[in-house]
Design a protein that fits this description.
Layout lengths: L12 H9 L17 H6 L6 H12 L7 H8 L6 H5 L6 H8 L3 H15 L5 H7 L23 E4 L2 H6 L1 H13 L5 E2 L8 H5 L3 H18 L3 E4 L2 H9 L9 H12 E3 H8 L12 E6 L2 H4 L7 H8 L3 E4 L10 H6 L5 H15 L4 E4 L2 H13 L6 E3 L1 H6 L3
Parallel strand pairs: 1-2, 1-3, 3-4, 5-6, 5-7, 7-8
Bound molecules: iron/sulfur cluster (SF4) (2 copies).
Length: about 400
């Protein structure tokens, strides 16, 4: 008897269409080239946790040949959205994007219900970080004054991100001062506070798109030449807005315009730095650069932070023994002690106890927040956590 066809339960047409047109689900030829770079597969050693396994599951699910169960949900939840798979895929298939879209499909709703409720009630990420011990600070807009409107299209608009804005404004102040040191007159993105990433990761696609549209509108009003993002994860999310709208629609075109203006702060800094390097007075410091996946792969991949740090002679820049990535946002969403990310982080914490590290440089704001929380719990570890801008400003 032929296997019974299952109608995918209420798979939203938007998700189906994005899976086909943006994530190119059916272009995956299941060659498996992506498996060797997938951290999730490396940890679980099982095909369903590989990008190919995920694409095969999504193809079966969307064509009605699979009834999703626990393993299906776990496979989606344990994708770190790093994008390594997409960087090696020989076809236009996008396993990372497909996984993010599948978070908003019905099989995942029960797994993400608590987080979704919390987000809708406005408790995440602010409530979460408050509960974890980070101190809520006055928003950056309140201490960076005056906030004159952009005068011309040559301006730099600095996007702080909700997490830095609420809890780590010192990183915004440092970036702000640094940009001014280089002779620019930046503006702050006071009208846009969140890129929408927490909503996308929590499976709230409609809310994410609503936030994206509001942000596109705000940025269109300001029309800066460059939107500098302090957090590379936010930059990657802004750059991915075109994936969520029809290419030829008004929204799709505006999303593309916005994406073309996005720049990651360390890339900008690396270009501007040579003219000011002589002014830096550096202490001898042992530094570890914690590189998140969001800076290793994908649309905002950059080696600028590590090149900048290595070019500063008084800094001794170390590497972790295991150079696995430290995903920022997924770390907070999984919350299980046995997940692969927690294991990587615990290994890094163990190494910190052995080394004399003065500063951990973390550019991704979620990674930086995680380090701050963990080091608060471990007063015996004397390392301090800093953004690149904070470290650089302390040298001027
Ligand atoms: S996602 Fe790309 S690399 Fe991975 S199995 Fe599919 S076609 Fe091959
Ligand atoms: S995005 Fe990263 S974790 Fe997810 S399937 Fe691709 S390589 Fe694996």
């Amino acid at each position: 008897m032929p296997p019974k066809k299952i109608t995918p339960p209420l798979m939203d047409e938007t998700i189906r269409s994005l899976l086909e047109k943006s994530a190119n689900l059916n272009r995956c030829v299941l060659c498996g080239k992506c498996a060797s770079v997938c951290l999730s597969f490396k940890h679980f050693k099982s095909e369903v946790f590989s990008p190919r396994g995920r694409m095969a599951l999504f193809q079966s699910y969307s064509s009605g040949n699979l009834e999703p169960g626990e393993k299906f949900a776990s496979s989606i939840m344990n994708c770190f959205a790093c994008g390594a798979c997409e960087s090696v895929c020989p076809t236009p298939a996008r396993p990372r994007l497909a996984g993010l879209l599948m978070r908003s499909a019905p099989p995942l709703s029960q797994h993400l219900a608590k987080l979704q409720k919390s987000l809708k009630a406005g408790n995440f990420p602010v409530g979460f970080f408050k509960a974890a011990g980070l101190k809520l600070s006055p928003a950056a807009a309140s201490f960076i004054q005056p906030l004159a409107p952009l005068k011309h299209a040559e301006g730099i608009l600095y996007f702080a991100g909700c997490l830095s804005d609420s809890f780590m404004p010192e990183s915004i102040r440092a970036a702000w001062n640094l940009i001014q040191q280089f002779g620019y007159n930046p503006q702050l993105s006071s009208g846009v506070v969140c890129c929408g990433a927490p909503y996308l990761f929590a499976g709230l696609l409609a809310d994410f798109c609503r936030i994206a549209l509001a942000n596109i509108k705000e940025f269109e009003k300001a029309r800066p030449k460059t939107i500098l993002c302090g957090c590379p994860s936010c930059a990657a999310v802004f750059k991915s807005y075109p994936d969520f709208f029809e290419k030829n629609s008004k929204e799709g075109k505006a999303a593309l315009r916005l994406a073309s203006r996005i720049a990651v702060f360390p890339d900008w800094l690396e270009k501007a730095l040579p003219s000011k390097k002589a002014l830096l007075s550096l202490e001898n410091l042992n530094v570890i650069y914690d590189e998140p996946c969001s800076l290793k792969y994908g649309v905002c991949a950059t080696k600028s932070p590590s090149r900048i740090l290595k070019s500063l002679p008084s800094l001794h820049v170390e590497k972790w023994r295991e150079d696995d990535c430290t995903p920022g946002l997924p770390l907070f969403l999984y919350g299980k002690s046995n997940n692969p990310i927690a294991q990587i982080q615990n290994a890094k914490l163990a190494q910190l106890k052995e080394k004399a590290v003065d500063v951990i440089v973390a550019e991704d704001s979620f990674s930086r927040a995680w380090w701050r929380i963990e080091l608060m719990k471990r007063p015996s570890i004397k390392s301090r956590v800093s953004s690149l801008a904070e470290l650089m400003m302390s040298c001027f």
